[in-house]
């Protein structure tokens, strides 16, 4: 019975379309239809790009000078994270009308388990369509959605018809859908892993399926079993809205190794923003800030700073991370991944009241 129930699971992955940039275009009619980059500015880094900008090859984490070179008419706007967070809460309130099983991944995407049809729309497709309609009408934004029987395929499907699209992959179509896609689009396969797979002759999901479990584990270690399952459309992970947190963090793998101090600092600011959003969403507090660094040769180090009291705010969290990063310079080699997290957590309700210092 458990296997049958698992196969009938209905999961939606909702992904907002160019979220930060779309909010800016919504709120400023003068930049609608124009190529827009959130962030950037002189010697900065692009945090998000509109679809009009992406046509010129502008993408997140790109230096603003490169973005401007590719798109001379690019409009830079300052990020407004408080606004993005408020809109995200509005969207999650819409989700909550359909299910209690909501697992946010970031401000602009989430998994929903709609196996139970709370509103009586008759199908997961109908629920996804109604959610997208309400986001369009109530938030004046567009969202793409993937509907399937597992999280992995639902996430692939939401990206399949972006922007403003809906893609439904039924259980009988799942393995063939995965087989048809390039592995570089798979969640969990980063640029370096994708390059390694290509050297091994693995370009599509179908190529990956030709490999045995022992062979994949020999090449990719513990990740090999994950690759073996997903290329067959197997993903048994549940949508978990109330996970106990041991730590809260965010990280980013770069398309190219970074070594310039200024660019790394800009990237860490962006990563800190994502991490702190998750801290607030989890409603936790913590005393230890941890920096994670993976170099171009895949060696990894962590550096931590612990406080006598809980880290009070985003500014203190970011400053601690930047201090840990600055202490690593000069770098022995380029960095391919940066992460920043909060550890030694407790529930906010258990945390002691914040004691404010006096400026002197």
UniProtKB/TrEMBL annotation:
Q: Mainly localized where?
A: cytoplasm
Name the residues annotated as site: Substrate discrimination.
20
**Catalysed reactions listed for this entry:** DNA(n) + a 2'-deoxyribonucleoside 5'-triphosphate = DNA(n+1) + diphosphate
Q: Kindly list the positions annotated as binding Mg(2+).
A: 15, 108
- Name the keywords, alphabetized: Cytoplasm, DNA damage, DNA repair, DNA replication, DNA-binding, DNA-directed DNA polymerase, Magnesium, Metal-binding, Mutator protein, Nucleotidyltransferase, Transferase
Q: What class of enzyme is it?
A: transferase
- PANTHER family of this UniProt entry? DNA POLYMERASE KAPPA, DNA REPAIR POLYMERASE UMUC / TRANSFERASE FAMILY MEMBER
Functional summary from the UniProt entry: Poorly processive, error-prone DNA polymerase involved in untargeted mutagenesis. Copies undamaged DNA at stalled replication forks, which arise in vivo from mismatched or misaligned primer ends. These misaligned primers can be extended by PolIV. Exhibits no 3'-5' exonuclease (proofreading) activity. May be involved in translesional synthesis, in conjunction with the beta clamp from PolIII.
Please state what the protein is called.
DNA polymerase IV
What organism is this sequence from?
Answer: Sphingomonas limnosediminicola
């Amino acid at each position: 019975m458990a296997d049958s129930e698992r196969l009938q699971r209905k999961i939606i992955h909702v992904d907002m379309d160019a979220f930060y940039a779309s909010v800016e275009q919504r709120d400023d009619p003068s930049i609608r239809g124009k190529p827009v980059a959130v962030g950037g500015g002189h010697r900065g880094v692009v945090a998000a790009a509109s679809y009009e900008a992406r046509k010129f090859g502008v993408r997140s984490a790109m230096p603003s000078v490169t973005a401007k070179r590719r798109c001379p008419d690019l409009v830079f706007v300052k990020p407004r994270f408080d606004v993005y967070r408020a809109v995200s809460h509005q969207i999650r309130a819409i989700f909550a009308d359909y299910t209690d099983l909501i697992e946010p991944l970031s401000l602009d995407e989430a998994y929903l388990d709609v196996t139970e049809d709370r509103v009586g729309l008759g199908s997961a497709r109908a629920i996804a369509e109604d959610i997208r309609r309400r986001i369009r009408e109530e938030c004046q934004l567009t969202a793409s959605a993937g509907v399937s029987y597992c999280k992995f395929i639902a996430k692939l499907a939401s990206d399949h018809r972006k922007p403003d699209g809906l893609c439904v992959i039924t259980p009988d179509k799942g393995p063939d859908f995965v087989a048809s896609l390039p592995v570089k689009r798979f969640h969990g396969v980063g640029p370096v892993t994708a390059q390694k797979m290509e050297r091994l002759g693995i370009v599509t999901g179908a190529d990956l399926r030709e490999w045995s479990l022992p062979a994949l584990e020999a090449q990719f270690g513990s990740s090999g079993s994950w690759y073996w399952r997903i290329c067959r459309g197997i993903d048994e992970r549940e949508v978990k809205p109330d996970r106990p947190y041991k730590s809260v963090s965010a990280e980013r793998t770069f398309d190219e190794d970074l070594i310039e101090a200024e660019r790394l600092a800009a990237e860490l600011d962006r990563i800190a923003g994502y991490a702190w959003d998750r801290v607030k969403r989890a409603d936790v507090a913590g005393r230890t800030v941890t920096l994670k660094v993976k170099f171009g040769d895949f060696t990894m180090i962590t550096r931590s700073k612990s406080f006598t009291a809980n880290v009070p705010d985003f500014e203190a969290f970011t400053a601690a991370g930047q201090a840990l990063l600055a202490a690593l310079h000069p770098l022995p080699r380029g960095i391919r991944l940066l992460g920043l997290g909060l550890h030694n957590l407790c529930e906010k309700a258990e945390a002691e009241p914040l004691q404010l210092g006096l400026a002197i």
